[in-house]
Every structure is written in C-alpha cells, then in structure tokens.
Amino acid sequence: MTTHTFDIIVLGGGSGGYAAALRASELGKSVALIEKDKVGGTCLHRGCIPTKALLHAAEVADHVRDAASVGVTASLSGIDAEGVRAYREGIVAKKYKGLEGLVKARGITTVAGEGRLNADRSVSVGDDVYVGSDVVLATGSYSRTLPGLEIGGRILTSDQALALDVIPERVIVLGGGVIGVEFASVWRSFGVEVTIVEALPHLVPNEDIAMSKGLERAFRRRGIQYSLGVRFQRATQDDTSVTVTLEDGSEFTADYLLVAVGRGPATADLGFEEAGVVLDRGFVTVDKELRTGAPGVWAVGDIVPGLQLAHRGFQQGIAVAERIAGLSPAIIPDAQIPKVTYSSPEVASVGLTEEAAVAEHGADAVTTYEYNLAGNGKSEIIGTGGLVKVVRQKDGPVLGVHLIGDRVGELITEGQLAVAWEAHPEDIAPLIHAHPTQSEALGEAFLALAGKPLHAL
Ligand SMILES: Cc1cc2nc3c(=O)[nH]c(=O)nc-3n(C[C@H](O)[C@H](O)[C@H](O)COP(=O)(O)OP(=O)(O)OC[C@H]3O[C@@H](n4cnc5c(N)ncnc54)[C@H](O)[C@@H]3O)c2cc1C
C-alpha cells in the first residue's frame, strides 16, 4: 500500500469534478483527480457535446432539405452514418485533448482507476491510498430504466443510441424530457419515423406549459408522433423489432427503443455511507454550500439532487474549490440556472414558470407577456416560429423567462441576468437590442411589460 498526500482529492473527472480540480489548482491547492474512464465524463464523451454535434448534423440536413425555400438549389441524397460518426467523434476528441492539456498545465495529478471512499475519508484506488484535507465527490450519473425493462439488444440508453452505426427506419423514444426530445429531433431530421411515449400529459414537462404546447405543435408539424399521459407497461423484442405496450393497451413497434426516463446518481458501493455521507434515494444530501454529512467531504454535480446539467456541475465545482480555499462564493439557486433543450425548435428557460410563480406569489401578483416570434424579423429570415414568455411580479422583478424557437438557446443568458439580478422590465426596456436579431423578441417583451410596446399591441 502506498499513501499519496494532496490538499484535495476529487473522485470523478466529469464536469463537476474537473471544474473543482481546475479551480482548486488555480487557488494554489495540490489536487489528485481520480477518474476510472476519461476526464470530461458524461457531458464530453456521452452527453452534451456528442449530442449537440448530432443536432448540428441534423440541422444541416434540414437546411439542405429546405434549401429551395430560400432559392438555393440543393438536394439531400442521404445521411452517411459513418460520416456523422466521424464528425461527432472528431469534435469530442478535440475537446478531450484540450481538456487533458489544461488539466496537465494546471499541475493536477490525474489518477486512472476506480476510487472508493474509506471510512477515514481517504480514497483508495487499487493498492494506493489518496489522502487530502478535503474530498470532493463527483461520481455523476447513469441512465435509469423502468422496473422490468431490461436494457440490451434493441432496447437502448442514450449511450448505445449515440454509438448506433445505422440510421434506423423507426424508433420509439420512452420519455419526453430533454434527452428523449433531443434524440427524437435528430432522428426525425435524419428521416426516421419517431414516436415519443411520455407518461405525463406533456413533452418537456418541467417547462412552462406554453413551451410544452409549442414544442408539441412544432413536433406534430415535423411528423414526430407522440403519446402523452399514458404509462408504459412492457416492451418485447425479437431479431428485427421491438414492441412497446402502454397501460391502455396501445402498441408501438419500431427497430429500436430508446429509454430516456431520467438519470440516477452513481453512488452505490463506493463507501460513501460508511464514511458518514448521507444518501437519500442514492443522491448525496448536502447543505447549501455542498458539504456532505462527513466533515471535509463535499459533493458536486449530478449526485446532488436538483438539475442535472453540466454547467450546474461546473458552477458547483468552482464554488466548492473556492470554499475549501477559504473564499465565500455566492450560493446559486437552481431557479437561476438556465436550461436548454437543443431540439428543433429549441426550448430555453430560466426562473419560475407561470404556474410556479403563481403558486409562490399568488395569481394577483404575477403578470406574464408573450411575444410571438412571427413578429421578429430575424426569426422570419431563418424560418423559425416560436415564442418568448416573460413572467414578472406585478410592479416587480422578472421571475422567469421562457423561449421556444430555433437558436433561442443562445438568448437565455439575457433572461438569466434579468432573473438573477431581479431586474424590472422597466430597467431593461431602455437597453437597446441589435436589429435584426432574435434577441429583439426579448426586448419587445420587456418593452411591453414596461408599458411601451414597439412592434406589438
Ligand atoms: C445524452 C445526454 C445529453 C446531455 N446534454 C446536456 C447538455 O446539452 N447540457 C448540459 O448542461 N447537460 C447535459 N447533459 C447532462 C450532463 O452530461 C451532466 O449533468 C454532467 O455530465 C454531470 O457532471 P458530473 O461531473 O456530475 O458527472 P459525470 O459527467 O457523469 O462525471 C462523473 C465521472 O466520474 C467517474 N467516476 C464515477 N465513479 C467513479 C469512481 N468510483 N472512481 C473514479 N471515477 C469515477 C465517471 O467515469 C465519470 O467520468 C447530458 C447528459 C446526457 C446523458
């Protein structure tokens, strides 16, 4: 047994873990970053980056298909699954190389292997023991399935769906949340017959109802089928197809079934509870500053209950590193974290939905305004419809910003500033949005809420 001593031991090199390691090293700490697979984690290798590469390829396919509508002569002769794979893998490889270089340049020691927390809060990797005054747990998450629904063969998680080297003819997507909706969007653009099965009454059910309805309309127009409000009962597969049966007896048959019903925390059998870390249904219980029940042990990323997003992991990792170094970073509530579903159209939001705002402040204290992208020049030019919805407290700050339309994900930062800075629409209304941009649609909503609409009634 060899003991290695560092200031900080980080267990898991995904978004949360590597952000903690990078910031801690910047602050002069010695860091061991333990990773059993590849630094970069789910987001870089199996999540955000490869799926967004797929979505970009899908967007290009749609543009080529629709080229005649803008007077460009082109025709889509097919999707080359191998070419798409090479493009996607090339992007991931470049980003991975850059990240590895950065981690090395910051003097972080990466340890390849599976780590386990010991009762004395050291971390073992094989015969080596890593000791630090602080340990950051960042072991991430895995794709969940439903009871009785076994992954394998034609029944895939997002990991296997990404690795598929064929473009299927028909796919069923179980789950109408962000991951399911993004894959459905990609496949449809690649010419696949797609059916989404969602047990709740709407797609993207965590979003404002106006966004869910907008996405449902847009998907219907794109020929994406969906079944809402009926629960999954079983799936059976043979050599050529998979059939899904719902509780109302309806059946769907396709080449593959993607199971996208959420992600569970990867915390089992890692010694966490024996070391005094409290778990609740597998998630790590933390205080507002991300301290676990064990002194000197912190948790960040998808193992912490709340939004499972890479940028939340980055933010938490940075904040924990700063706290360990004696700084006092702000506590960012989940309601101030922007969320983007990168389908076509995109859905982006920050802050409270109208329903949540009414529940928190009362119906009389909440005002909303909806600006249709039909009135926005740039949206017309790029051929997207959609909506901006701003929720404000009456005579008070902006509580939520909700967007749907192609490319609107890029606009959500302005919404985040408005919500986090508790800006009143009257504060933002005098600030000018460049013309013609899609951001003008947000500007129009703020102008209208400030009582001086420009291109609206
Ligand atoms: C298909 C898909 C698309 C996504 N798209 C987006 C998106 O567009 N935007 C967004 O913000 N988020 C997206 N996410 C979510 C995002 O990937 C996660 O929120 C983020 O990766 C969480 O970071 P993390 O550090 O908590 O965990 P992870 O990234 O999962 O990293 C955990 C790391 O810990 C390692 N590990 C686990 N246990 C051990 C151990 N015992 N010893 C050593 N190493 C260990 C794992 O190998 C892994 O590398 C997506 C996820 C998926 C699946």
Automatic annotation (TrEMBL):
Cofactor: FAD
A Pfam cross-reference name: Pyr_redox_dim
Additional free-text comment from the UniProt record: The active site is a redox-active disulfide bond.
Family per similarity comment: Belongs to the class-I pyridine nucleotide-disulfide oxidoreductase family.
EC numbers on record: 1.8.1.4
InterPro entries: Class-I_Pyr_Nuc-Dis_Oxidored, FAD/NAD-bd_sf, FAD/NAD-binding_dom, FAD/NAD-linked_Rdtase_dimer_sf, Lipoamide_DH, Pyr_nuc-diS_OxRdtase, Pyr_nucl-diS_OxRdtase_dimer, Pyr_OxRdtase_I_AS
Gene3D superfamilies for the chain: 3.30.390.30, FAD/NAD(P)-binding domain
Cofactor comment: Binds 1 FAD per subunit.
Gene, per the UniProt record: lpdA
Domain FAD/NAD(P)-binding: 6-317
Coiled-coil region list: none
Keywords: Cytoplasm, Disulfide bond, FAD, Flavoprotein, NAD, Oxidoreductase, Redox-active center
A molecular-function term among this protein's GO annotations: dihydrolipoyl dehydrogenase (NADH) activity
Predominant cellular place of this UniProt entry's protein: cytoplasm
Protein name, per record: Dihydrolipoyl dehydrogenase
Compartment list: Cytoplasm
Domain Pyridine nucleotide-disulphide oxidoreductase dimerisation, first and last residues per copy: 337-445
